[in-house]
Amino acid sequence: MRRGVFRRDARCRIVQERGGFRGPPTEASVLEVDAVSKAYEGSTSEPGDTLPVLADVTLRLEPGGSLAIMGPSGSGKSTLLSIIGGLEPPTSGRVRLDGIDPYAGDDAARAAFRNRRVGFVFQEHHLLAGCTALDNVVVPALARGRVTNAIAVRAARLLDRVGLASRADHLPAALSGGERQRVAVARALLMSPRLVLADEPTGQLDSRAAAAVTDLLVELASESGGMLIVVTHAEAVAARVGTIRRLVDGRLLDGTVRDGGPAP
Ligand code: ADP
């Protein structure tokens, strides 16, 4: 690990310190989504008006499992990811990851659930413009305190895994769209999440870059039994993830499709 890689300047204050990193949790992960429904309240100016978005969604992911969710715009895909990721409580039903219900505790418990167990990749990479690629990968560690040597080494390894070791010092503006999204993938994997949630992660990429980013997500997320859910409208991307389920009008259809083959 090179010295001085974590810059301290007005735009990107990331501090490195010595200390241990406990590494990924060792238990096998399971995701259970049981009869989740969601209706947004106050969607219109009519008092008491609610907008039903998800109806009775049930799914289960086993250790190392990956799933693509497809569906038309407005069918509730992002809402479902937000509920699974501890960002938005369901109206009814239950989510459990490794047996933990993110909505059973207070806001701090929910924040800890997201930080320790879930990695997010969005269509917009949301990289910090004033920070290098390596500094951006390290960002999730800041929520847990300072950046230890072990975290710094893991961040550099992840950048290497996504093919950007030689770009560690580059600012996002100096990277292509595909490279920026690969930085976002490395950032999502930094804390060894048990579950990676990707919302249209390749929506702004050409088909070649989309394939490369998807393959990285599948490979890296499943290491050590981690799980992956990718929301996408691209059949080619969904086929690379393996199992596909379709969300239509808030209902998750039963039929699963493997390797892009036709639904039974
Ligand atoms: P998708 O990801 O499939 O495009 P979304 O989950 O983003 O669908 O949205 C599903 C429906 O819920 C849409 O009609 C959207 O307008 C509505 N919606 C999403 N978020 C909110 C919110 N915070 N408040 C009210 N309505 C919302």
Can you say what the CATH homologous superfamily is?
A: P-loop containing nucleotide triphosphate hydrolases
Task: Give the ligands present.
Answer: adenosine-5'-diphosphate
What would the CATH topology be?
Answer: Rossmann fold
Main sheet overview: 7 strands, mixed
Taken as a percent bin, the fraction of beta residues is: 15-25%
Described by the principal axes of the CA atoms, the overall outline is: globular
Number of helices: 7
Tell me what the CATH architecture is: 3-Layer(aba) Sandwich
Number of extended strands: 12
Outline the low-pLDDT stretches: 1-10, 17-26, 257-264
Order of helices and strands: EEEEHEHEHEHHEHEHEEE
Q: Supply the number of structural domains.
A: 1
